[in-house]
Amino acid sequence: MLNKNIETFLGFDADYKDSSFVIFGAPFDSTTSFRPGTRFASKVMRSESFGLETYSPYQEADLTDYALFDGGDLELSFGNTERALEQIEEFTSLVLKDEKIPCMIGGEHLVTLGAVRAAAEKYPDLHVIQFDAHTDLREDYLDQRLSHATVIRRIWDLLGDKKIFQYGIRSGDRPEFEWAAQQHVFMNKFNFDGLENTVEKLQGKPVYLTIDLDVLDPSVFPGTGTPEAGGVSFVELLNAILTVSDLNIVACDINELSPVYDQSGVSTAVACKVLRELTIAINKNNEMGGVFNG
Amino acid sequence: MLNKNIETFLGFDADYKDSSFVIFGAPFDSTTSFRPGTRFASKVMRSESFGLETYSPYQEADLTDYALFDGGDLELSFGNTERALEQIEEFTSLVLKDEKIPCMIGGEHLVTLGAVRAAAEKYPDLHVIQFDAHTDLREDYLDQRLSHATVIRRIWDLLGDKKIFQYGIRSGDRPEFEWAAQQHVFMNKFNFDGLENTVEKLQGKPVYLTIDLDVLDPSVFPGTGTPEAGGVSFVELLNAILTVSDLNIVACDINELSPVYDQSGVSTAVACKVLRELTIAINKNNEMGGVFNG
Amino acid sequence: MLNKNIETFLGFDADYKDSSFVIFGAPFDSTTSFRPGTRFASKVMRSESFGLETYSPYQEADLTDYALFDGGDLELSFGNTERALEQIEEFTSLVLKDEKIPCMIGGEHLVTLGAVRAAAEKYPDLHVIQFDAHTDLREDYLDQRLSHATVIRRIWDLLGDKKIFQYGIRSGDRPEFEWAAQQHVFMNKFNFDGLENTVEKLQGKPVYLTIDLDVLDPSVFPGTGTPEAGGVSFVELLNAILTVSDLNIVACDINELSPVYDQSGVSTAVACKVLRELTIAINKNNEMGGVFNG
Amino acid sequence: MLNKNIETFLGFDADYKDSSFVIFGAPFDSTTSFRPGTRFASKVMRSESFGLETYSPYQEADLTDYALFDGGDLELSFGNTERALEQIEEFTSLVLKDEKIPCMIGGEHLVTLGAVRAAAEKYPDLHVIQFDAHTDLREDYLDQRLSHATVIRRIWDLLGDKKIFQYGIRSGDRPEFEWAAQQHVFMNKFNFDGLENTVEKLQGKPVYLTIDLDVLDPSVFPGTGTPEAGGVSFVELLNAILTVSDLNIVACDINELSPVYDQSGVSTAVACKVLRELTIAINKNNEMGGVFNG
Amino acid sequence: MLNKNIETFLGFDADYKDSSFVIFGAPFDSTTSFRPGTRFASKVMRSESFGLETYSPYQEADLTDYALFDGGDLELSFGNTERALEQIEEFTSLVLKDEKIPCMIGGEHLVTLGAVRAAAEKYPDLHVIQFDAHTDLREDYLDQRLSHATVIRRIWDLLGDKKIFQYGIRSGDRPEFEWAAQQHVFMNKFNFDGLENTVEKLQGKPVYLTIDLDVLDPSVFPGTGTPEAGGVSFVELLNAILTVSDLNIVACDINELSPVYDQSGVSTAVACKVLRELTIAINKNNEMGGVFNG
Amino acid sequence: MLNKNIETFLGFDADYKDSSFVIFGAPFDSTTSFRPGTRFASKVMRSESFGLETYSPYQEADLTDYALFDGGDLELSFGNTERALEQIEEFTSLVLKDEKIPCMIGGEHLVTLGAVRAAAEKYPDLHVIQFDAHTDLREDYLDQRLSHATVIRRIWDLLGDKKIFQYGIRSGDRPEFEWAAQQHVFMNKFNFDGLENTVEKLQGKPVYLTIDLDVLDPSVFPGTGTPEAGGVSFVELLNAILTVSDLNIVACDINELSPVYDQSGVSTAVACKVLRELTIAINKNNEMGGVFNG
């Protein structure tokens, strides 16, 4: 009590040097065109996580079984998108250099670009698995090339064809769907059908997993800027996470929680539970095989 | 920019004369006995529609493929129910006379009576398909014969036996269910089972489609005056719309969105998406066969 | 109109002496560790019940078919947990002595302990069926032995091994799950699988049914203190209630509605509907066989 | 506890026959053109009144000093304005015939017309004091003669020139202000300046007091359909009530609370306190002089 | 009805060419560091303005007395601050070139910089009067020179010493207050004391008036990103506007309404009323003297 | 960044040993009879304080001028009131023993009893100044002697007659006001009139200052469990704090913020500002005279 007040996500109690898994917040939403607010996600998740148990009855494992570190939130420049992405890239690179797995909490989806840049530098053969309602494949959006609506297209600029695997997609403009259909990225609409095939194909590859929580149905997760009806259930997302956790996930993120739009707190509780399950799934796997190191 | 500010539902950009499909708002909720607020639906849907894409990945078609007109909101007399219904009937008749399909955005469900009166005048053999949680079959309600709870009974007064097909019903009083069981209307409780049979039976008939959005489960669509647990999912509703869109739909409406009861905005987003899919489904069909003209 | 204003749950219009089924509120939430508010549940349910129909299209029966009494809310001591439990026990005993079935509306789940104490005194062979997201099996919680998180453990102190049957459980700490696995209680995780087996096993036994409404998925029921993703649907809960209503239910409760966390009112509407269906299910069964009387 | 649950406004515990002051709700808002919701006011005020003390430190008197009766809510026809006004008139007449003072809780301001009709029949020389932000003097509104925006004009139709005294007015259209300036009614804009003069002038006259709570500044009372900045404070309204309570108030009402627009509950708490102070002020005065009886 | 739906702020019905006063929205909030949402202000104000009267009982004048044009909202680049400011500058210049008075609805306060650049180009001797809770005088903020917290400092870069007059200031960091005290700008803390002196001093000068609505007390105006207790009342702000309207106001703005933070709608209603009074005050003055044309 | 995430109230950055002023949270609301939620106050205040400046333009001083320590929140037993008070007393005693000034953030007002017990042990001549809407002088409440409604009476048990000075009181039951009038405590109703006299009288005495934030008008501070119209303004409270800060304040608290009831965040912002001003006022004074040490 007589030390300064420490606030970390529930169960993330280890010191940095002892941890192999590091979460941090990237509170940025300046390019959000419709309803901003994801900047509050990481802060609110930390605060509300004390309503969560550390134990997963799904995986029969506990956050306390692992050494987990919470680095707090990056201080990002609002209104200067490129600089914010650099700050994210720098921090992610630092974590990766120390042979730990970074797990970023957005923020709008654009923050993924900063983390992927860092991961791609360390792992040139990086693949990306994306769970999302939206394609995010626009070439530009409202005259901008750096936007939540273009983020996966910018990642494709970096990684090239056939490195990106999208699941759950149910919104975008027609050119995005047509571009995807030209084999630039793999896209599975509406759900996780065929995810096992992707997992099989990516065995042994370094994988970045990005989870836009709006892949969930808005009934499950109303607290997001652009809710899209027709999404997956929590159990479907959980199973998808367990499925891909067999892969060598070298970095990951969850994003697009916007707590202000769900005053029941349910969306935040769901996000916390997704983070718990994701953390356990990746760390369980690592126990058995270690961090992928290219 | 130097013209007056125009606000239409996303993608409804055509002029009246060029359009074959016309939406308009009927912001009326004076007989709502429990929780009013549907009067704001059309206004809020227009305003929020810019968070929606014009493209449907479900139907692989785009609102921009069609000439669509948004006539704005009718100015209706609050507190004078009969006069408001006349105003709705007049406007609907005008649109029908010009050989366009009217699509009304309620308002409480009673507004449907005004539009059906207009449609029944032009199409004496009119049939009605109703997606709804509630029977709306009372003879009167709180001493009134014109009420959101009696609207389908009033339509039966007009059309007679075996012209009305109800799906998704899960609320009403016992006499309503008993009356329906006397073959006055066809009622399928809880879901859309057997909708194909109705579609088969109504081939070649003029059909009015009325969608009370509370047919959706309240988890999907909380923003309504009388939420009824145990409803259908968005995908089930979407499929039902696609199923009936093969018919000759001469007029339609969606109603009972009450935005104030869902501050997440999810209900409005769902309503916008239903309108997009309904619009595309009807216009796709018309491309192939033209407006039904008796 | 010129009598004092009476406010009862919809359809609970009978006098006490004529009724065989008695609801009452237990507005207590003092041990709630995360988000309080269940104290308002019974009051809000009464007030909002007039948005509900008395007729169940699921069971084709009506609340008005039975003589039902609403005893209002107990006045409980906030901040004195043991005293509040005594008050609940006293009232429940009174109702049981008069050969009526008490149905308590919580409050936090701890209130169940008071009612079970009364029921166990009358029915020494009492069994408990619990629908819940949480195990509630802790030995103590935040230094307290009387808590919403320990309530079922305290009931086990009273009833002993193999008398408690838990369904829908998806949250707790590891020791709780391990303790349950030692055959102290029967626990079925996540859903109602195998409920028929429990019903078969408990034929002829006096049963207390406790429904923590957070067994429902938060999409269906966000208005609760500790929402847990991955729950059951309304229809699944309804079917589970119908399944166990064949048993001799001597007392029951529904708890953990916290209206303030769901401003759409949907959670309250769901709770009202659960109460309607539960009431009809139990009273239908009693019509056929009478109240269990040991 | 074993009687049916009674719910009255705090401190209104007497039987009808013993009371000289009778409150009742008129939950009607069908003509509300902007944001409906006042229909919930009386119900919510009853429910929330238990957060209030019965004692007034302002008047050093207590609700429990008087015999006060709460008649509950009238069941009014939604969507049939004229019928609803008749129902209000009938009930008010009944209370007046029994030599009691009726105090109506609206509803939209139009409900005042029903009560004034009853009062004017018993007291042909009736005068009206109105505390309000709005003139409500339109000849008609949205084609209707019966509307919340025309209610005082309709009362003028009944009572004639120089019988109506308006205070706090700060909104209306220009013709209303011009019409008032022609000496049809007395209007004091913005505040209660000069209220003592009106009180002096109306000594010995039967007075109907109608308080549209939107006379309060929206900072104090946000929960109303048409909030108008620049209103009076709670203490100013309290003093105005105390000032006019010296008159022979034969009937009164408070109206236009719309609880749904103020989720903090502050507006409801203010309305409850205004009702407490108004009740005590009128009953204190009556103790000294008895009900005015023409 | 059969024209496209036009939505303008209440009473702004004239065509561009006929108007001498032009409002437009600048929906930008990308640099907002705390709570974003001002991007919705202009849209919501238009939508809610129909709850307002066009007539001002304060000024005894009506919006309909003037030819007023609403240019709708600019489409601004989110996340590219410099580009957004250019877009604002271009539009403002166009309006100024046509000898009309532009009145911008923000948006965060940074948008003022774009409009002031345009005004300062046309009127080299431009002075700025600022009503605001915050100094906005930082040299940079979170590493950025273009920010809502630096906007007035950037305007000082443009205009130089003794051209800026701040009223109502009650928040900032110490260096800002110290810098202001060095006579770079005139600052009056907390209220409008001495505003008459400023008006006297600026007779005959071209003045840009910028109203950050958070100058109002948060009780009056809670719907803003950074509420600061201790502000002015609506009537005080109204009087301040009337006081400065004697000056030659060549352009103006109101900003920092963030509707999502005030679900009662009161803040939006206040902003609409401020815009009505500001519009009438400036146009009344112009009737007497014409637009200042340097 | 690579240390654990620390979250303290803005500007409370010092280590414990270096500080003379220590804030800590007492998140307890188990006896709250009406609307709970104050348990979240300290957590939310910390989180939201980053929207505040550290500089006070009122006192022309800065939080950063002092060494201030934030001890985080106590972990209190919910549902065991006496144990919670002991925990508060222990911590407060520890801080007092180290010659620092404790400043507790409630929680419901009952928490004050724990802190006063500690202060009265160290300072036998302790006096209490209370700013509050409520008397809190009941002998017992709902059968309990330890309650938010009895807290000042319990403190009187401890300190005896003429040690307690109440300001701003406007709610209680009649016996409380009568008991106070018997000279047990000094009570000033409604406002701070005469506070200078109290300050003069208490020169040189050890003083505990307890601020129930509901002394503020609900328009300024809606986020509290029992809002009472007719309260003081922020500036009035600020001046009262400045007035009493001349005294030897040996401990203090602010309590009864309930953030969930004010979704605008304004109440939390006000509470943060009160804490800033209170902290600066006490520390400024101590600079000149040192901590009172009996």
Task: Please tell me about this protein's structure.
Chain A is an alpha/beta fold and 294 residues long. Chain A has one domain (16-287): Ureohydrolase domain (Arginase, Chain A, 3-Layer(aba) Sandwich). Helices cover 34% and strands 18% of the residues of chain A. Chain A contains eight helices and ten strands. Chain A has helices at residues 41-48, 81-97, 111-122, 151-159, 174-184, 195-201, 234-244, 266-289; strands spanning 21-26, 55-56, 61-62, 68-73, 101-106, 127-131, 164-169, 186-189, 206-212, 248-255. In chain A, the strands form two sheets. Chain A has an eight-stranded parallel β-sheet with strand order 4-1-5-10-9-6-7-8, sandwiched between helices. In chain A, helix 7 links the parallel strand 9 (206-212) and strand 10. In chain A, helix 1 (41-48) packs across helix 8. The longest helix of chain A has 24 residues, at 266-289. Chains in contact: A-B, A-C, A-E, A-F, B-C, B-D, B-E, C-D, C-F, D-E, D-F, E-F. The A-C interface holds A 50-51, 53-55, 57-58, 60, 62, 217, 219-220, 234-235, 238, 263-266, 269-270, 273 and C 34-35, 169-174, 177, 189-190, 217-220, 222-223, 226-230, 261-263.
